[in-house]
Amino acid sequence: METRIKCVYCKASHYIKWGNRKTENRGIIQKYHCLDCGKYFTNDDGFYRMRNSEEKITAAIDLYFSNLSSRKVRNHFRRHWNHNASHMSILDWCRRYTLKVQKYVATIQPQLSGQFYMDETEIDRGRGNDVFWCNVDWGTRFINATMYSPHNQTVEDAATFLKATVAKGLPKYIQTDAGAFYPQAFQKTFYSNKVQGLTVEHRIQNYHKTGKHNVRIETVFMKVKDRVDDFRGLKALWSAPILMQGIILQHNFIEAHTTTGKIPAELAGLSLNVGLNRWLGLIRLSVQNRKE
Ligand SMILES: [Zn+2]
Question: Which residues pair with 20 in a beta bridge?
Answer without folding.
Answer: 30
